[in-house]
Amino acid sequence: MTHPPSPLSRRGILAGAASLAGTGVAMSAGAPQARADSQNRPRNAVIFRDVRPLGAPNPVDLTVVDGRITRDRAPMGAKVIEGGGRIALPALVDAHIHPDKSTWGGSWVSRKAANTIADFAAQDAELFRSQIRPVGERAYGLMAHAVTRGTRAMRAHADIAPAYGLTCVEGVGQARERLKHALDVQIVAFPQHGVVRAPGTAALLKEAARNGIVDVIGGIDPISFDRAMDKQLDLVFDLADRYGVGVDIHLHDRGETGLMVLRGIIDRTRALSLQGRVTVSHVFCLPGLSDTELAETAEDLGNLDIALTTVAPSESLVLPIAKLREHGVRVGLGSDGVRDSWSPFGNADMLHRAHLLGWITDVRLDKELAACYEAVAHGGADVLRLPRADLSPGSPADFVLMRAECLPQVVVDMPARDMVVHGGRVVARDGELI
Ligand SMILES: [Zn+2]
């Protein structure tokens, strides 16, 4: 499967990543380093001494030059950081989170009963008005916390609706700027109140896409919530086509309604040649399909390189990740809402999400536990079109150091993240952002 250049690289966060996404092949560090050497620029080198990559029994020294793992000898004067025999595992990716809605770090909020998306969305707006801290502060608090738990990148959905204007999108943008040394962030303009049912939203989506303040345009249940499937999908896909942004649509509908929307997304991706630029989140209509139906749908998704995300909500609603991957479908995991009006739960800890994936799918074997971790770390990187941080030579030096024996045990025990490294730089230590 080949991948077209990512439209998302205009922010710079994905530069050079497009040809690697989904392949698991590490980028060669040769060319950029050689160029740096020929100009006699000092290379930024760090040795992480006495660490065990992926749980290897014997500790080694892990050398990082200019943000990437290398097999070469470290240049003279390299900084040395002691790893103390800790396990080194790939940093994690949150492929679906809503930092703008969160009350993380603030006072406890007592939630009221809600049954429909409209109820929840109304409570979002109420909570938004009641919070003293602006979106940028709340989002920063949650995103910084995610970094301390080992998250290297996230796709952040931010509400866009007449009730907020561009405030949520801009707030998450401010948090992204403050954390740019530690976290790669894609922002989705998410029409939580509907594209068609909330007049004024379409104009805001257009403004966000045109101004380049978002990387992706979102959508939500075009049939059951917006009650205007063609209108919503046409509008969202037209913006993606016109402004070179991605698409990421929340699809909660099950059964035939969900499949009808999915077919609408597949058709438009094909018609506009948006292969590799479209994601569908949740996709509760897929897990209930027969093997034959699932294989047919997965074939279409794989051929058009449409990515999916899941939050591993339950055994019956989690996406069949292994089967989808057989057809080349990129699948990532996410936190979704964290301590917001929708739910008191959530913690933006993607190791916990890997644990939940293993728990709800009742895994038992070491290779199954390891696959849960890899789905979060590498599946998420694939969805965001980042090179995988698999600790191989040339890969980004994004890893987490923990006191643990092996990867399967880490998924079960969720040990403290003693050190989080992003681009070869220690960005968090003992749960605190540096
Ligand atoms: Zn969501």
Automatic annotation (TrEMBL):
Pfam families: Amidohydro_3. It comes from the Bacteria. Transmembrane segments: none annotated. CDD domains: Bact_CD (cd01293). InterPro entries: Amidohydro_3, Metal-dep_hydrolase_composite, Metal_Hydrolase, Metallo-hydrolase_Enzymes, TAT_signal. Residues 80-427 form the Amidohydrolase domain. GO terms for molecular function: hydrolase activity, acting on carbon-nitrogen (but not peptide) bonds, in cyclic amidines. This is Cytosine deaminase. The lineage of its organism: Bacteria, Bacillati, Actinomycetota, Actinomycetes, Kitasatosporales.
